[in-house]
Amino acid sequence: MAPEVLYRVVYGTTNPTPSQTSRLIIEPAILPHYTRRRVRYCDYPAIIPSSELGASVRGTYVRGLTSDDQFRLDLFEGSQYERIRLRLTLLDRKGNEGEEMEAETYVWAEDIGSLEAGEWDFDEFRKEKMGRWVGSDEEYEGELRPSIAGEWDALMVDSTANITMPEVDQAVEQKDPTGGRGRNSEVEGKLEAKGKSEEEVLESAV
């Protein structure tokens, strides 16, 4: 998951405040024995187990997520994915492998017949499709900050319930390339409603 999309899901903006970005620690990581495939008619990828020699997927390992953050991510990913615990290897900024960790990541839960044979291309997604996911207003300038740049597409979280998302399923059937997860989508509305309910709780507490 690109950091802009992560911030949009968790914070409701692709341009979070310094205090918000400091709460989440985002590190590159490698998930072995998995491969990344394109989902037919969609912008986003799926990761599935692979027996091919050297198969791996590069992604983001995220620390600092709260239970509310995780709820929002589950809502966003929908029923096409299952969040499961796997072992991964952290990478340093030069791409060297380091510490092994356990983390939860979203693995494709539907029929692999809906996946294309080709590898999903992160660079193509950034150049041609990112705007559908984060908007095209002043919040999104089309480039990652240097501190978080990289080919990061799989999300691995340091933290379990599956949430059914009929809006996502319907959008996929209608060949919406975001699977109902893009800007101004029904999923976006649910995320915003979740945020408003949290603000109301805080206001009532004050």
Would you give an account of this structure?
The protein is α+β, with helices and mostly antiparallel strands and 206 residues long. 33% of the residues lie in helices and 29% in strands. The protein is built from six helices and eight strands; from the N terminus they run ααββββαβββαβαα. The protein has helices at 3-11, 18-23, 67-77, 122-134, 166-173, 186-205; strands spanning 25-32, 34-39, 45-49, 56-63, 81-91, 97-108, 115-119, 154-157. A five-stranded mixed beta barrel has the order 1-4-8-6-5. The protein has a three-stranded antiparallel beta sheet with strand order 3-2-7, with no helix packed on it. A hairpin with a 5-residue loop joins β2 (34-39) and β3 (45-49). The radius of gyration is 17 Å and the shape is globular. It starts with a helix and ends with a helix. Residues 137-152, 159-169 and 200-206 have low confidence and may be disordered.
What spatial order of strands do you see in the largest sheet?
Answer: 1-4-8-6-5
Give the radius of gyration: 17 Å
The number of helical runs is: 6
N-to-C span: 35 Å
Structural class: alpha+beta
Mean pLDDT: 76
Order of helices and strands: HHEEEEHEEEHEHH
The biggest sheet amounts to: 5 strands, mixed, barrel
Helix content: 25-40%
Uncertain runs = 137-152, 159-169, 200-206
Shape: globular
Q: What's the total count of β strands?
A: 8
- Oligomeric state of the chains? single chain
Strand percentage, roughly? 25-35%
